[in-house]
Amino acid sequence: MSSSTAAYGLRFTGDVQGLETLPEAGPRWPAVRLEQVAGPAAGELHVGEYEATLPVPGACLRLDRRRSLAAIVAPAPLSPDRLLHPTLGYIATTFSHWLDRLAFHGGAFSVGDGAVALLGSRGDGKSSTLAWLARAGCLPLADDVVVLDGLTAFAGPRSIDLWPDAARALGLPEGVRSVRGGQRQRLAPPAAPGELPLRAWVSLAWGEGPRLRPLSPAERYAALARHLHVQRAGRLAGEESLLDLLALPAFELTRPRGLDSLAGSGSALLELAGQLQQDRGRDHQKSGADGGSG
Q1: Are 106 and 25 in contact, with CB atoms under 8 Å apart?
Q2: pLDDT tens for residues 156-180?
Q3: Is 193 strand, coil or helix?
C-alpha cells in the first residue's frame, strides 16, 4: 500500500514513513517520489534544467526532474524528524524552481481566508515570531520556506523548530519534541489549508522598535530579491509572480535583538492582520453593493 504526504505545493510519495500529512493538499499538486539511498553524503552543488545535486547537512540530494525523483543519499537513512525539516524544504525549493514557482526564505501565517508571508534570512527571528503568533491564536502556514505559485501560498510541514532558549521564553507546553540532535525544540501547529491566497508580505529586520512600516515601491524589489531562493545564476523562476508581489501591501518589521521584543513585534503583526481583514470585509461590501446596483 503506497503512502504519501504533502507540503510546499507538492505530494511526496515513496519513503515517507513517519512524516506528518497535510490532508488538504491540492488535487493538482505534482508528485515527487522520495528514495533513501545508502552512500556517502558527498557531492558538489549543481542545479541544471533536469537534474540537481544539493549537498545538505548529513546527506546529498540527487534530484531528477524528468522522473520526479528525489534520492536522499546518506550513510544511514535520515530520521523522519530530519526528513520533515529541513530536507523537504531543500527538495521543494528546487522543484519549485523547475515549476516556475517562487521560493523564499521565510514563513507565513493565515489571516482569515488568506495569508501573510514573513520574509527573513537565517537568524532573523522567523520561527520565534511564528511561534509567538501560534501561541496568540494565529495559524502558522509555513516556516523556513515559503513557496508561491502566482499569489497562492502553500502550506509547509506542521513544524516550527526553535532554539531551546526561544522555546523557554515562549513558555511552550510540555510535549514539545527535541529534534535535530537536541539542537531544536519542535512545535507542531494544527493542520492548515494546503494553500491560501497571499494578502500581504512583511520583511523582517533587526533595528529599533518594534516598528512596522510600509515599504516604498523602490524598497520592495530589493527586499524580495534579498530573500528569494535563486537556484541558478541568471535564471529567475516566476518572474511575472515577482511583479505581482510588488503590488501587494508590503511592510518592514524591525525589532531589537532579544526575545523580550517578541511580544511587541507579534502584536504589530496581529494589528496588521486585523487591518487586512477589515479591508477585506470592506472590499466584499463594496463589490456586493456594486453588483446590486447593476
Answers
A1: no
A2: 999 999 988 898 888 876 557 777 6
A3: coil
The per-residue DSSP string of 5-29 comes to EEETTEEEEES-TT----TT--TTP
Report the chain's terminal Cα–Cα distance, integer Å. 55
Cα 189 from Cα 41, distance rounded (Å): 31
Distance, in Å, from the CA atom of 123 to the CA atom of 284, rounded to the nearest integer, reads 38
The set of cell numbers assigned to 149 is 505559485
User: Cell for 212?
Assistant: 512596522
219: which 3 cell numbers?
A: 524598497
Residue 26 pLDDT exceeds 90 = no
Q: Which amino acid belongs to residue 71?
A: A
**pTM of the model as a whole:** 0.90
- 114 with 276: CB under 8 angstroms? yes
> What is the Cα gyration radius of the chain?
19
Domain boundaries, the chain: 4-283
CB 24 within 8 A of CB 194: yes
Cα dihedral 132→136→142→145 (10° resolution): -30
Question: CA 266 to CA 259: how far, in whole Å?
Answer: 11
Environment class of 187 (CB within 10 Å of its CB; exposed 0-12, middle 13-18, buried 19+) = buried
